[in-house]
Design a protein that fits this description.
The protein is mainly alpha-helical. It has one domain. It contains 17 helices and 4 strands. It has a two-stranded antiparallel ribbon. It has a two-stranded antiparallel ribbon with strand order 3-4. A hairpin with an 8-residue loop joins strand 3 and strand 4. Helix 1 crosses helix 13, helix 5 packs across helix 13 and helix 15 packs antiparallel against helix 16.
């Protein structure tokens, strides 16, 4: 596998890991009446406040301006969660990547968008993850050094964001936007290339190419002999494999830092890092990934953002509510939409987020004095990016809703057929 192809496959694996985790925990909440009751109970006071003109902010008084909660913001956060959920449910990848850029596009400061996104991930992880079912596959030897490293990365990443914000909020926004320009740009253009490559395959379902064997990179990492060494995968490989504690801690540090700076939870990077870089089997990785998401998102959202007032709790709950609806509809719609169309829309949605953040940078550079352009020009460029982003998201959402409504008959027939087969299976002979 060539170097560039390995990098792009790694990026695609990031998106798929994020989408799969989001889908699983969301469905866990949706299938539990108790969990859904808790979600609605938490959202009830916010919904009541949203019906009035304004109320004191429920979080982030110092970071957010104006520091007032409004119904527009709350319902807007539901829309953001809905779009992210539709992408995740329909495509199975990367819907959460648009949350932070979307929050920033509606005027929320970058540091608060990151903190709010991270808290949303933590809340969903705590409520939706059936940890007891999968922790049996956790290798504590792998998990402990990785989480120690990730804890250090969270503190450093959070400190960087806060330091930049304290120095200049505009510099903070420019930094976070630049991170998303790189991530969404690479992922979006590769997804577009992938769509164009497969557009003539009528039976395409949107499956991603993921390298599942032990990569050459993983072999190199496992060959680094810096004690203490950690053994793993003894149940899958005779004699097991081993890797240095130091390599795991460094990997965790990178994931934790990226998570704290981008508000992405870290889960999207853990799975591909374990499989691609460390050569860990997917069975062992799943449980460790779940444990790491809860740890990293919780540590980051609470210690690096919540205690400093950089979380808007009402918006986090609105996104949670919207994403649960979106994921359910998106997952059902996949049964009536061709996979190749899904692939194309995913590429366009990710690139829309890329354009939105890219078009913000000229104005931020102008505000920082690093770029000398007329104010009207850079403001106009930023507005074009915002309009394009929301136009793409709106078209995507309306298209999915249209397909869902027009496909209800097919979905009902399929549901009835499944119920009939189940009845036949249990009927006494």
């Amino acid at each position: 596998m060539s170097g560039p192809r390995r990098v792009f496959d790694f990026l695609k694996a990031l998106a798929i890991a994020e989408g799969q985790w989001d889908y699983e925990v969301s469905m866990s909440i949706l299938k539990s009446r108790k969990k859904m009751f808790i979600v609605l109970l938490l959202c009830a006071p916010i919904l009541i406040l949203a019906t009035v003109h304004a109320a004191p902010a429920l979080g982030g008084n110092n970071a957010y301006g104006p520091s007032y909660f409004s119904g527009t913001l709350f319902f807007g956060s539901i829309a953001i969660g809905l779009v992210a959920g539709l992408i995740t449910g329909c495509i199975g990848a990367g819907g959460g990547f648009v949350i932070t850029p979307a929050l920033m596009s509606v005027g929320i400061k970058g540091i608060m968008a990151v903190g709010t996104s991270l808290f949303n991930i933590f809340a969903k992880a705590i409520m939706g993850t059936a940890v007891h079912r999968k922790l049996g596959n956790v290798s504590l030897g792998l998990a402990i050094p990785f989480m120690l490293g990730s804890g250090g990365g969270v503190y450093i990443g959070g400190a960087i964001n806060r330091a930049l914000y304290d120095k200049n909020p505009i510099l903070s926004d420019a930094f976070i936007s630049s991170l998303y320009v790189v991530l969404l740009g690479l992922l979006g253009f590769y997804s577009l290339y992938d769509f164009l490559k497969h557009r003539k395959i009528a039976a395409a379902k949107g499956e991603a190419h993921i390298y599942t064997g032990t990569t050459k990179l993983a072999v190199k990492f496992q060959s680094v002999n810096i004690p203490p060494m950690v053994k793993f995968d003894e149940d899958f490989v005779p004699g097991g494999k081993q890797i240095s504690w130091v390599m795991l801690a460094v990997g965790g540090f990178l994931v934790g830092g990226l998570s704290a700076m981008m508000g992405a939870g870290g889960g999207f990077a853990t799975f591909p890092m374990f499989v691609y870089v460390f050569g860990v089997s997917s069975m062992t990785t799943v449980g460790t990934d779940i444990l790491q998401i809860i740890f990293t998102a919780g540590l980051g959202s609470i210690t690096q953002y919540a205690v400093y007032g950089y979380i808007f709790y009402s918006i986090a709950m609105g996104m949670l509510l919207g994403s649960l609806v979106g994921i359910q509809i998106g997952a059902l719609t996949t049964k009536v939409i061709k996979g190749i169309h899904i692939r194309g829309f995913y590429a366009v949605a990710i690139l829309a987020g890329f354009v939105d953040r890219l078009f913000v940078l000229p104005r931020r550079m102008q505000q920082l004095g690093a770029l000398h352009l007329p104010k009207a020009l850079v403001v106009g460029i930023e507005k074009v990016g915002d309009i394009f982003f929301w136009l793409v998201c709106t078209i995507f959402a309306l298209w999915l809703f249209y397909k869902f409504i027009t496909g209800l008959k097919i979905l009902r027939e399929e549901s009835a057929a499944v119920a009939g087969k189940s009845f036949e299976a249990v009927r006494p002979s």
